[in-house]
Amino acid sequence: MYKRKIKENIYLLGAIDWDRRLFDSLIPLPDGTTYNAYLIEGSEKTILLDAVDPPMADELISQLDGVSKIDFIISHHAEQDHSGSIPRVLERFPEAKVITTPKAKLMLIDLLKVPENAFITVTDGETLSLGDKTLKFIHTPWVHWPETMVTYLEEDQILFSCDFFGSHIATTDLFVTDQGRVYEAAKRYFAEIMMPFRNIIKKNIEKLEGFDIQMIAPSHGQIYDHPAWIIDAYREWVLGAPKNTVVLPYVSMHASTKMMVDHLLSSLVSKGVRVELFNLTVTDTGKLAMALVDAGTIVVGTPTVLAGPHPLAAYCAFLANALRPKAQFLSIVGSYGWGGKTVETLAGMIPNLKVEVLDPVLCKGVPLENDFIALDKLADTIAKKHSEHGFR
Ligand code: FEO
């Protein structure tokens, strides 16, 4: 792909990764991704903003053919999908200086062995003139690692945001063309990497409120030429109250837990509570993470196996604990054969969740009438709690 013009003297570089299906060996990427780098040719200085994942470095280097000089390389984020090919760019432009935060400098030295004398570190709010264009560096930690920053191009009102506001979609479209598709991908991305840091993301969003942002150019996915909606979406994900929704991930071995889950779902729906059900043997964990962004309650359905929760349910609890969603209630339902410590084990795996644990419903073998009554009672409790807390 050749470099593509966004505005006068501002270009999109980088690579489209159509085939990638997993990020960090953890995050499913059903639609691939892009690694966006940007080139700004000022009247006096030329600057590259971020780079690409190392396997795509040749593509970036070929896009820089014809560029006689790069004065600066901005590294917004030390993760290798954006920084990994900076050493290759430095080989081609050895005079270039790497501009980054003090924390990112240390990470880039650790991760990529970039020589210390290649760096210029910038403070929060510092500016850099390229001649006719001015860049302002805004420290925005935890989007997605602690060292991250974004850059605001003052004359063109463009925010270069790296992972912040990004979406994993492989596409040749330069700008957002399908808002619904990008909303879903951006929410999935937020859930997987930023949800745990909501309090800090909130401060970062507030920090951007003082800027007139006409365009957001992220390092994954399409450019937002009408960015208000994605900023509003982030506000909702970060600040919005939980919704009147139960996320119900489950696994069942011989259908007893499945019977309980199905009954609970029907009972909740009959009481006006929305349910998102995930069979953990087949589910896309990205979809599950996305559902956790808004859920008021999480109910895990698991049989007892080998004296504890099914390993897939344990993984789900571990993931939820790491993602720290805003859900306020949690419960456990499931069937057991002769005993075990399912509830104790799962409860011990979620210390980060600030939830009230509602009485679990466990039954021996196949559920009977009393078990279904207990599930109805749990559904009643959830509906009442959601109503009392104003979840909509
Ligand atoms: Fe796109 Fe945190 O890297």
From TrEMBL:
A Pfam family this chain is assigned to: ODP
Residue span(s) of domain Flavodoxin-like: 246-392
Gene3D superfamilies in the cross-refs: 3.40.50.360, Ribonuclease Z/Hydroxyacylglutathione hydrolase-like
Classification via InterPro entries: Flavodoxin/NO_synth, Flavoprotein-like_sf, Metallo-B-lactamas, ODP_dom, RibonucZ/Hydroxyglut_hydro, Rubredoxin-O_OxRdtase
Family matches, as SUPFAM superfamilies: Flavoproteins, Metallo-hydrolase/oxidoreductase
Superkingdom assignment: Bacteria
GO molecular function term, any single one: electron transfer activity
TM helices/strands, residue ranges: none
Family: In the N-terminal section; belongs to the zinc metallo-hydrolase group 3 family.
Cited PANTHER family: ANAEROBIC NITRIC OXIDE REDUCTASE FLAVORUBREDOXIN (PTHR43717:SF1)
Protein name per the record: Flavodoxin-like domain-containing protein
